[in-house]
Amino acid sequence: MKLVLLPLLLLSLAAHADEREWVPYKKLVEELRLDKYYAIPPAERDKIKLFVTVKPKNTKYQPADVVLTVVHGSERSLLTPLSPDYRLTLVPNAKWMTDDTKIMTSLPKGEKSAMNYEVTAVLPEGTQWQYAQVMGAVGQTNNAIKKMAGAFSMFAPSVKSVLFKFAKPAELKLGANVYHTDAKNQIKLTPEAAWLKENPLLVASERPLEALLDDE
Known about the structure:
Layout: E1 9-13, E2 20-24, H1 25-32, H2 34-39, E3 48-56, E4 68-72, E5 75-78, E6 87-88, E7 102-105, E8 111-121, E9 128-130, H3 131-149, E10 161-165, E11 171-174, E12 177-180, E13 186-189, H4 193-198, E14 201-204, E15 210-214
């Protein structure tokens, strides 16, 4: 799911010789409200994993082309490389939450990038999981969104389902119910209160690539 708590953040992305200032570190953390997310007790977000996506508008740029470096005084620290899906795990660093800490980017002047969120459900090892462990990620995500949005929670988006992505055709079994992948090798499930209470096993014919939280 791509969550937008604020209007789509378009930042002029600008390496060492040609790198440009992108955005102050503190501003990025606060505008994305990552500080509020990580202030949520771990037990209230243990079913989910939050990513920030940084995707250049110019499709010629691949994830490896986007190098982000934090400059704090004389210290330089590379942020983790973007994944093949343009994802970045960004945990606020208290030492960098100053007005003079900058994030530099390797992309040329004038290039812009859309920043969003993607949230996945944490899947325990194997191919069998308690229903509430996985599908409870929907409720946790929505609660986290409200806390991140604060006074603007009434305008915040919400997630509705878990989208299981597989490498090939597969199925999920829930009691007597069997769900098969669609043409994209995906299965979408919406949490049901009765199942969350009963908490049966959710059994996959093979382990999914991921379980993405979806707003549809």
